[in-house]
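User: quick one, fold this
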Amino acid sequence: MDLADTLPGTMNAMVLEKLGQGLQYRQLPLPQLQSPDQVLLKVEACGVCRTDLHILDGELPDPQLPLIPGHQIVGIVVKAGEKVTGIKPGDRVGVPWLGHTDGSCRYCRKGQENLCEQARFTGYTLDGGYAQYAVAYAPYCFPLSPIVQALDIAPLLCAGLIGYRTWRLAGGKSIERLGIYGFGAAAHIICQIACWYGQSVYAFTRSGDASAQALARKLGAVWAGASDQAAPVKLDAALVFAPVGELMVSALKNLDPGGSVVSGGIHMSDIPAFPYHLLWEERSMKSVANLTREDGHAFFAVANQVPLRTEVQVYPLERANEALEDLRQGRFSGAAVLVMD
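Assistant:
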């Protein structure tokens, strides 16, 4: 039987109707393909990301409204447009933050599609995965294993991908001593990859967050402490995932000459002024913007070798507001994931 023949006429979704307010649980018409290179997915799970909070709080400009958030989508293809190749109904795919690019701007031509001038983003300027069904552009979907549980894969589609790009921008495999500030979803994944490559990981968490520090040690970190502490050794690189500008300076203070601090967040509070001598000796500060499809393919190639273990807190779709507030308050370690059934 064709999967499309069994589709319902409506679906349940969590919808952002007004900035600064919670999501509304709505019954909506089933989304339709608007382009021949799109696919319709039955969503199995969708990760909850701090970027979703930034969108809800109005900290990112001009989101599509009304909006279905969510950009860590694991789903089964139930319908494919006539120009879709390499994906067919029945396949499991993942949908990341980068949802579409123009392919022709100067950034796309240089292989920097993450900076595309006309980029569209899942769960921000395109409807996302806080719903039972979602539409996505097939060229921006990643094929996923049909065996692994969907809730274990979902965090890889942003926390994993952005964490991996952040790590690579900081030096990747050449790093020996790596600091990670903010031990949440991205950090707990990249910590495992860094340790797999034999790197020494130093985890910095909120003061008094014993559970995050314990998780960091369990995943291989050689040291874990509060973010206002000095590292026990000088670092080659530091990744900052918490949206706190002061941490960029804290990390800079812990760097060896030639080291890099890289922010993996899409939004951050202002970075305070600091004396030039902290930056001197070829230290650097950088930011990560979005991701490329090449990042995704490279990450999943590594993820298939590393025995990654995702720590997830599971919520049903209708409790998305609770998941977001728990994320805001730091009530769990690892990642939150919404499941649809």
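User: anything notable?
Assistant: The mean pLDDT is 95.
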